[in-house]
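User: For a benchmark we're assembling, each entry needs the component sequences followed by a predicted structure for the full assembly. Here are entry 17's components. Please fill in the structure.
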Amino acid sequence: MEVESPEQLQRKQTTYLSFGENFEIQKEVYRGQQYSQIYFARLHWMRALLYSLVPNWKSHLPVCTILGLEEGTECIIVGTLYKHMKLKPCILDEYSKERSVAPLVKPHNFMNQDDYLVLEDESGRVKLGGTVLSPSVYVTGVVVALHGKETSAGVFFVEDVLEAGLPPQIERPLKSREDKYVVLVSGLSIGSSSSNPLQFQLLVDHITGHLGDEEEQGLVAEIVHLVIAGNSVEISRGILSGQNLASKDQSRLSEPFKELDIQLTQIAASLPLDIMPGSSDPANFSLPQQPLNRCLFPGSATFNTFRSCTNPHCFELDNIRFLGTSGQNIDDLTKYSEAKDKLDFLERTLRWRHLAPTAPNTLGCYPFTDRDPFLIDSCPDVYFVGNQEKYGTRLVKGSEGQSVRLISIPRFCETGVAVLLNMRNLECHALTFGTQFSS
Amino acid sequence: MATTSRNIKVFYKQKKNTTTSTEKKSTKNPSHKDAAATFGSDVTQATALASHGGSLDLKDDFDEEEKVLAQFDMNMAYGPCLGISRLARWERAQRMGLNPPEEIESLLKGGKVRLECLFEGRV
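Assistant: Structure for entry 17:
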């Protein structure tokens, strides 16, 4: 006979606002357009922004188009960067007549010291020279303003760069809040050989308050939201070979979803959760990935606390704005540029005001005609990326008092680490679950 | 960046003396007015094979309205013209604040002109 504890712990509540309409493509109609339209929309929006920032930067210099460049005259030009990379895989290599000894193993990073940058706008393009603009930092698709002059060789010698910088941030009322926590996790990879079901069950039990004593449960009652940032399932490649599946293999296809749904039902019964698709999830390949279909989650989708969201995902909890992706954008930057830390990439995308600058060049993207949905027009308070190797966090300050918490969420199947963020002061720490028994 | 002039004549280059010959209109491929994304190569073959009387010209019909619209298609300030209908491109330019000339909108809604851009079906 169990003794009922006299008081029931209530979980704290928050208000939730979704900003996902920007990333939904149900209303889009494909008319055979190419990617030039999305590049035009991006250049138009960013150029208008940079033109407004140029007077504060260097007001004495004239601004001109690329075709209007005159040799020797110092001026400012604005355009989209294109990085020419020797090692970037090209579909035409497969058809080239000369079968050079191409390496079978593709390198992780396609950078080469011969890479150079080109600036492009509607009127023309010009090769960039000088050492201020480093090809190892920038990627194709970033819109910047450059100060410099054209040399006799026809190359634009860059003296200074202006990036858009952090977008304006809406002031949050600084009333003394109570502690409310958000759990961010990614890379559950249910169905893969490396995932440990006990580890995920531990996470679920902890969040739903089934573990620990009253004090522990009291802390857990302050967790108000869970975000699963992609790669929740992994179907082994062997099944997806294009052959018809035997009936015994069909159950292997659906097993990971059944297991995920059971866990998500336990979570959804307890607190609101958002699930985003990732690169290994059954959603469309190109960004923005559309929400996972509710029929995959027959148990948990019946709860109104269950939300299937797009990737990238933008939402507000109690007026704190969260923005994040499942990792494809940062992984692509890792292939085409370099930085000491993944958080550097995250910070760069924020300063460039674009979530995925390499889309559509090397990252799959829907060919929007009238807008570029990845432009960041309002600075988030929390900016996260999922499916990274390790946990990392940093607080970034902007020139106009913006403050953003950057979070790199590690893959849960490999590390057993989830991230706990305190909404009161935007501090976060790692929540580690282990199932090794020390001998 | 965009020319905000309402005067449509700004778009005009020097006008050549062109003999408007009706037989040229009959060689115009009738499938131009159909659905947008025509990837079929038979369209390009038809226009290439048809004789244009010596002067190969991008515009295959010579009326004034089509010339005006072709200039609108070519204007870089409003973005690329391929893959988007002329009216959608005009509306997008309007939304972006580029002030496209209103005559274009009335021409397109008037209905006697090609709704797709100059190169539609040819590239």
